[in-house]
Amino acid sequence: MKLNMPKKYLILYALMSALGVSAFIMFGHHLSMMLEDIIMEGAAPGVDGLMWVALFFLLYALMSALYKVVGARVANSRVEALAGRVVSTIDDQTRKHSESMLNAIFVHLEKYRPFEKVFIPTVIQTMVKLTVIIAAMFLIHRNAAFIMLFTAPFVPLYYVLVGLRTKDESEAQAAQFDELGTLFLNLIRGKNTVRHTGAEDTVIGKLKQYNERYVKETMHILKYAFQSTLMLEFITILGIGLIALEVGLQIIIFDGITFYAAFFTLLLAPEFYNALKVLGIEFHNGKLSQGHLERIEEWLATDSAREDYRTFGASSDSVALEGVSLGYGEDMLLEDVDMALPKTGFVAITGPSGIGKSTFIHMLLGLHRPERGTVALSDEDVGYISDEVYFSDTTIHDYVSDGEYEEQEVVHILNQLGLMDSLDNLEKGIHTPIVNHNIPLSGGEIVRLKIARVLIRRPSIILMDEPTEFLDATTEALIMEHLAEIKQEAAIVAVVHRRKLLNIADRHYTFSNRQITLAKGAS
């Protein structure tokens, strides 16, 4: 199995493992000598002997604890780097695949972490430990060393065979989890659409089907785990038993071994076979974890291969659709729609809940690929305002400016939206930190803050999904006044529920019967 670990970490693990097992062997050496003097010679334990035993035991315990700490830190840093690769791919093009992204980050990454944190350190530590113990046993008791060499290969051989099958099962389980999680999250996100299209029975049936398949794959893996544990215990007991029998025969019948060598051998034998047992268990777990890594890499490879289905700059209109069909398989939201929107002006879109208005906006954003047809935009500079925008750990200033605008420009746009009075009352003003999505503003003020982030850029196309849904009448009037100014130089396409926004609309489209049509009386 490929460890996929930089050499510097492999060398560090090997050196620490060698130091730890050497400390254990020295502990066993001094303990065996001290016990031989006590039992065979009848001498009292010496202070020097006790000190050496205690010193090497403490060193062994210290190295074991330190090894775990170092392994955990290295693993966490590498998993965080892998998570960074996943997060770096998140942009406007990947939101439509957010379920797979969430599974990659929150499920597969965490299930892969034991591979870095436990499996790789265990493999290296075990290989070093087995090598050093075998070398020591050839100096202490050659017969026991040969028994170890004869029985040890049965564990890795068995686990290679079982692990290969486990890897296949784990990949199937990970795939089933992705399908189940994706379907469930899509159901939550698009519950209105599912209800509107009458697809409840279909979705429930698919959830049940994926759940049954996931449980089946999980039970297969548990079966292999049980069989593997049983075989491990058998091989371990057999190996230790053979060595104990050989040592007993040497002591009782052949008189060919000293007490020192016999005790030392029986001390090292369990350590040797326990290391093999741990390696076997972790080999099984490592294969499970590796299956999750492959799901992450598959997601990253798929994401990097995606292409934007939209074209830019070729259209004289801000938005141009030709033969666009949008939907989910047989449940279409739009069919063969042709549409052209001017480069400036306010376009309002209305229609029943769940009919596909938000999905239409997501399509324009590049978040939802249409089944067929072409989507052309006049410019790549597209702003998006929605209540689905989330705050990262930042400050109000950095959130609005996005690192591109000076403080006076940020203050200007916030002042235009009537936010500076509230922000001036905060201890740190516009530099107030936003932590864990917690921001000390009201719902309407948060909406205006999100609008400020887009309007400060002055994009040529602005897409809005319910932009004034949570605003009071006064604030809504303020936003409408600002939008009325912006629409003179930009195209604004907004899904609206509140009818007041229609007062500033230059065009009003409605969704019905899988079409987008101009509302009666609209220009």
TrEMBL record:
Molecular functions (GO terms): ABC-type transporter activity; ATP binding; ATP hydrolysis activity
Record's keyword terms, sorted: ATP-binding, Membrane, Nucleotide-binding, Transmembrane, Transmembrane helix
Lipid bilayer topology: Multi-pass membrane protein
Localization terms from the record: Cell membrane
Cellular component aspect of the GO annotation: plasma membrane
Ranges that cross the membrane: 9-29, 49-70, 118-140, 146-164, 224-245
Entries under InterPro entries matching the protein: AAA+_ATPase, ABC1_TM_dom, ABC1_TM_sf, ABC_transporter-like_ATP-bd, ABC_transporter-like_CS, P-loop_NTPase, Type_1_exporter
Residue ranges of domain ABC transporter in the record: 319-523
PROSITE patterns: ABC_TM1F (PS50929), ABC_TRANSPORTER_1 (PS00211), ABC_TRANSPORTER_2 (PS50893)
ABC transmembrane type-1 domain location: 10-288
Role of this protein: May be involved in multidrug export. Transmembrane domains (TMD) form a pore in the cell membrane and the ATP-binding domain (NBD) is responsible for energy generation.
UniProt-recorded name of the protein: ATP-binding cassette domain-containing protein
Organism phylogeny: Bacteria, Bacillati, Bacillota, Bacilli, Bacillales
